[in-house]
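PROTEIN DESIGN WORKSHEET
SECTION A - STRUCTURE
LENGTH: 463
TOKENS:
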């Protein structure tokens, strides 16, 4: 296993990565991107075990509901790169189980790769969303054939791929890029039905980074994003060679969707578990700021908070159901229930904006206009700012101001905007979660219940 120091050194491997128009020689030493590297390095040190052959606890494959719950709870405490590595490993093992009957050699190749990654203590990021071009057209129908990642050449010993993947969290901070189809494919799309693993420093891989990290020397006004932030990578495959042992799917269009759906399951589980804490935090902020404003007993404020806490409770209930109703595969691995995972993620994503709207309505305009912490410390106006930002002897101005900063940072600034979009898009948009929910909902049970209620049991099994 690697230490945090080893991990930082491993990133100085010639990878081609860019940020705000400039190529970055070493991401670990960059003033902004390096902060994410530092967070991941702490994760390495946290799980480091010098025992030969040891595997990080966060990579443990669950074999029961209890073990799955343990991993979910553990991953609420890790950095994002550590989390997406686990989700990637579980995606690969899920896909291996699902393609076993049709491609046993490929399934064995996946399992061998996972074993290698675990032993080498590498970090994986997920490349799924293509640039897509004209969304009304299939991959093979695009005006530019490169709008979906595709195989442009097949050689002895491997393939050459070209294209781009978008929205790849921490792409420049990992070691491996799990590159899989973004959707189901049809005959004619064979070159696009490609699933493979690509080293971040492979020749031809180029990564453009963006980040919501605050560009301020004093990050006290950004209590959340000023401490932890993760860049999003625009990953370009400019004719990248991939050896055969790293290719898990090549041309089998009927199986392409299995990889996307496998990732969707684990990404949505991660999104759902993250929502549990985020929704509780939104309720907490709403209650705290209503008390700080002296409005906690006002009827419409209480009503809004009541609605918020119901949504928070339903999201938590969905996570509990997804874990308790997990499925055990032929490999003995526990996978969360598809229906509860997707329905819960959908409910949370669909109601995130409502939760934030209620919070903003309760908090008021000072969410955006509260003075900075440095202003409160100014010798000329600081005491006046604190005086007028207070609401009573029990609520001093600095406390209330810091609450406003936290709410703004979490919901109404660069990180807040990232939150608003990713709550919907992480693991696929709302439509994708509706599709999977429909696939796994027991319509026969529902129809049977309706016919029994209508006193029409003779029609059960006939309609």
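SECTION B - SEQUENCE
RESIDUE ASSIGNMENT:
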């Amino acid at each position: 296993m690697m230490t945090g120091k080893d991990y930082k050194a491993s990133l100085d491997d010639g990878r081609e990565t860019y940020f705000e128009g400039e190529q970055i020689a070493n991401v670990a030493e960059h003033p902004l991107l390096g902060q994410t590297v530092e967070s991941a390095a702490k994760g390495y040190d946290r799980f480091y075990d010098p025992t030969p052959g040891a595997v990080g606890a966060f990579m443990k494959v669950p074999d029961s509901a209890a073990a799955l719950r343990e991993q979910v709870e553990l991953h609420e405490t890790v950095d994002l790169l550590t989390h997406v590595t686990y989700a990637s490993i579980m995606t690969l093992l899920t896909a291996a189980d699902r393609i076993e009957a049709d491609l046993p050699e490929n399934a064995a190749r996946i399992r061998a790769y996972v074993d290698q990654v675990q032993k080498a203590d590498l970090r994986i990021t997920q490349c799924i969303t293509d640039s897509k071009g004209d969304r009304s057209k299939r991959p093979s129908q695009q005006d530019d054939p490169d709008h979906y990642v595709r195989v442009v050449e097949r050689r002895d010993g491997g393939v050459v791929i070209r294209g781009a993947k978008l929205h790849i969290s921490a792409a420049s901070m990992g070691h491996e890029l799990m590159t899989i189809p973004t959707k189901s494919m049809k005959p004619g799309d064979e070159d696009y039905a490609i699933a493979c693993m690509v080293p971040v420093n492979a020749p031809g891989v180029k990564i453009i980074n963006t980040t919501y990290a605050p560009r301020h020397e004093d990050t006290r006004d950004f209590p959340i994003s000023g401490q932890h932030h993760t860049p999003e990578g625009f990953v370009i495959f400019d004719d990248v060679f991939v050896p055969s042992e790293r290719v898990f799917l090549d041309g089998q269009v009927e199986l392409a969707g299995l990889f996307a759906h496998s990732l969707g399951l684990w990404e949505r589980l991660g999104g759902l578990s993250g929502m549990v804490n985020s929704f509780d935090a939104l309720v907490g902020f709403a209650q705290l700021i209503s008390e700080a404003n002296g409005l906690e007993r006002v009827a419409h404020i209480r009503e809004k908070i009541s609605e918020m806490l119901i949504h928070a409770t339903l999201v938590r209930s969905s996570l509990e159901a997804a874990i308790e109703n997990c499925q055990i595969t032929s490999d003995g691995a526990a996978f969360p229930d598809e229906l509860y995972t997707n329905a819960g993620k959908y409910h949370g994503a669909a109601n995130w904006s409502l939760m934030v709207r209620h919070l903003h309505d309760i908090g008021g305009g000072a969410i955006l206009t509260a003075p900075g912490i440095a202003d409160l410390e100014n010798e000329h106006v600081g005491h006046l700012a604190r005086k007028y930002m207070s609401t009573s002897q029990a609520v001093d101005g600095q406390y209330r101001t810091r609450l406003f900063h936290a709410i703004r940072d979490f919901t109404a600034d660069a990180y807040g905007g990232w939150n608003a979009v990713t709550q919907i898009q992480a693991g696929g948009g709302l439509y994708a979660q509706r599709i999977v929910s429909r696939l796994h909902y027991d319509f026969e049970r529902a129809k049977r219940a309706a016919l029994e209620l209508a006193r029409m049991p003779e029609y059960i099994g006939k309609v």
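SECTION C - NOTES
The chain has 15 helices and twelve strands.
Residues 253-292 form the longest helix (40 residues).
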